[in-house]
Amino acid sequence: MRSANYFFKEDELIDQQYKVKSLISINDYAQTYRVRNPAFEAKVLKLFLKEANTELSVLERLDSPHVVKLDSVGQVRVNGSDYPYAILDYVNGDSLFERTERQEMLSFIGAYNVFLGIINALIYLRRLHPAVDHYRILPKNIILNLASNAFLPVLANFSSSGAKDIDYTPDEMFFIAPEMLHKQRHESTDLYSAAAIYYYLLHGHAPFSKEMNAPAMQAIPFEEALFRQKQSLVDFHVDLYDSTRYIIRKAMHPDPTARYQDPAEIRRDLYKDPHDPCFSEYLAALK
After folding, report:
1. Is the full-model pTM beyond 0.90?
2. Quick check: 180 and 166 in contact, CB under 8 A?
3. Start and end of every Protein kinase domain (predicted)?
4. Pairing mode, strands 42-48 and 81-89
5. What is the DSSP string of 140-209?
């Protein structure tokens, strides 16, 4: 990455108080740095390049171990322009994407616990007044907190909460609900993405990614092909409990109204005996 693409280099001070340790990410919306504050604590500084009032208003309302925590906000002048920034608590860990890219697969129990943690985060967001939708439940936005004994997942990046038009890369599209490919939303949209991540953790690849390699799918535009695939119930390529298959398939149902409508419903099923024969009946009834 060329230095001209970002404002601050390692060891530079931002707003005369935050020393840059490394660049975390950069895009047209924001530049994100790992920094140290005057007390030598590790923090994350997110410098906004575009209007960010919606994200900042969401961050100010969050107070849960399952989501990123806002420390403070400020403004800094760079090259004659003023840019707002947010200081967030630093989560010592890797994203799910980074861990999977290193082929460090979680055990079934590990994947279950991460999925349960994501669901707990969504329950928290749903119970806020007004409720908060995320719309970017992606492996790169789930950070495993290594300071916890159970790899507590922390949900980051609320840049799309309340956004009208959201753009996704092709790799990200595997994790979003089919209606989002057509710029439509439903209250079950985030639940679809959470289940897609559970599938990803159990398989090591995104749902529908293998099916997209078929010659018939390669012959048509990517988004159209993926939308067609998402009109079917997801297939599994590893041996799983019927309860796990049911939870994932129901949460990822192509019809938004046929999915779980509340994350608490998913948590209820996760807490049930995974060997309960009722799940086999429920799974067979899914259409």
Report:
1. yes
2. yes
3. 18-279
4. antiparallel
5. GGEEEETTSTT-EEEE---TTTT-SS----HHHHTTS-GGGGGT---TTHHHHHHHHHHHHHHHSS-TTT
Does one domain contain both 44 and 132? no
Cis peptide before 130 (omega within 30 of 0): yes
Q: Both tokens of residue 28?
A: 């047209």
For residue 98, give the amino acid letter. E
Sign (positive/negative) of CA torsion 193, 195, 196, 198? positive
Q: How many residues does the chain have?
A: 287
In 3D space, the residue among 113, 269, 94 whose CA is nearest the CA of residue 201 turns out to be 113
Q: Which pLDDT tens digit goes with each residue over 29-81?
A: 999 999 999 999 999 999 999 999 999 999 999 999 999 999 999 999 999 99
Of 10, 152, 181, 6, nearest to 68 by C-alpha is 152
CATH number at residue 56: 3.30.200.20
Quick check: is 5 in a domain?
no
Asked if residue 7 is part of any domain, the answer here is no
DSSP SS3 for 233: coil
